Amino acid sequence: MDQLDIARWQFGITTVYHFIFVPITIGLSVLVAILETAYVRTGKEPYKRATKFWGKLFLINFALGVATGIVQEFQFGMAWSDYSRYVGDIFGAPLAIEGLLAFFLESTFLGLWIFGWDRLPKRVHAATIWVAAIGTVLSAYFILAANSWMQHPVGYQINEDTGRAELTNFPAVLTNSTTLGAFPHVVFAAFMTAAALMIGVCAWHLGRGRNQDVMRPSLKLAAWVMLVAAVGTVISGDIQAKIMTEQQPMKMAAAEALYDTVAPASFSVFTIGSLDGKNEVFSIRVPRLLSYLATGSWDGEVEGINDVQRAEEARYGPGNYRPSVPVTYWSFRLMIGTGLAAAAVAAGLLFLIGRPGRWLIGTMRGARRGRSATGAAPISPTAAGPAGSVGTGDGGWGSHVPRWLWRVAVWAIPLPILANSFGWIFTEMGRQPWVVYGALRTADGVSPSVSGATIVLSLAVFTLLYGALAVVEFGLMVKYAKAGPEAVPSGAEDETTADGRPLAFAY
After folding, report:
1. Could you give the residue ranges of the DSSP H alpha helices within 369-451?
2. CA distance 109 to 313
3. Per-residue b/e over 267-288, b at no fewer than 16 CB within 10 Å?
4. For 419-440, b where at least 16 C-beta lie within 10 A, e where not — what string?
5. Are 283 and 272 in contact (CB under 8 A)?
6. Using one digit for the tens of pLDDT, what is the confidence trace for 246-287?
């Protein structure tokens, strides 16, 4: 590999690794704020314990996200100096605001939240985590504004003397249509990522009958957030696809491995064929779906790779404007597939812990014991044990859920993380050969004075550093996730609700 290939590998590895932590931070900050708000409004101790428990995992992840973000910045100045020089005037404004405003809100109010327990009034303390959560979301917006400028540069002019892009319209950068399409998609995906983590940890505890007063409401909250966010991700993704087709037709064509322009265009769920698109061995397709995704019409025309290549050559001069088709094709499908799989796990858990699921499991168990389906009674609170709990009595709430499904929920934690990673790989690889679409080629953004050996050395250092951080992150998250929430305060286990039910089962 030459210097450019090594620099691209370094950028890809550091960026994908950093973005493992970002969506968890965004999503968990809001979920923790919701739980503390529930505690302030109801005064129920389990909500306070849930807030502190998930807040601890949030803080661990936040610290690692900051560390990996700082390291990521080093590579821009070292391996991509020409790129940094070209975009510096544009990126300076949104990234400065991100650091001075958004990160200031995050760090300052997180400090107040951490040290303000039992020192600040409840409502003021809850407000601090909401301000910190708003800071994380704003931080994402300003960073996405910078990235979206690479996808669709607006509000600038080229200085002929310096060869740099110079900012002429900052509001245009902040209201870039690409930013407005990408922001909700990324935020909804972040909620899915945090919800998957919460669901998996709850599943680990509930499968063992532990900490049910905290894990039960946390599971319900996370599962509903997952499903709502999944719907939002699909809708925002559809909007983003249409924007992408208009601005980067080659990326959409490569995402489908569509070589010839067609109307209407089908969407291939799975295709095996030659890389040039001339031979197709096997394919599963949804008729007209690609036309709708790209144009909003079921009969819309979608340009193929060959036609877009000719148009790009006519506009920008001779060259290969095709990205890696296998990478874009499969990263697009893996992004969708892993995201939908995570949502399916959440839907399955919500169904089984609800009344229809309890009835179904009870009926199936009754049938296995030799009773007729009509004679099998649903699991009832009386049969389950403690008032208001659900199960067979051996594991408390949720013990009727098949144990394998709890395991699936735990192993599903990485699914949205993978979806995020595949999404960013698709976004960045599908834009090639441009680092700033239509303005600066990737080959022209690499540092001319830095040798490939130097980049390899820095990549090795980054790999070792990130490996050490991964061990620390994973170890701390697993340790505190398994430890569970803090012990029930003295006397709290005896509290009851207005109807006399134990507080632990009143969720």
Report:
1. 381-384, 403-411, 414-429
2. 51
3. bbeebeeeeebeeeeeeeeeeb
4. bbbbbbbbbbbbbbbbbbbebb
5. yes
6. 999 999 999 988 899 998 988 888 877 766 666 777 778 889
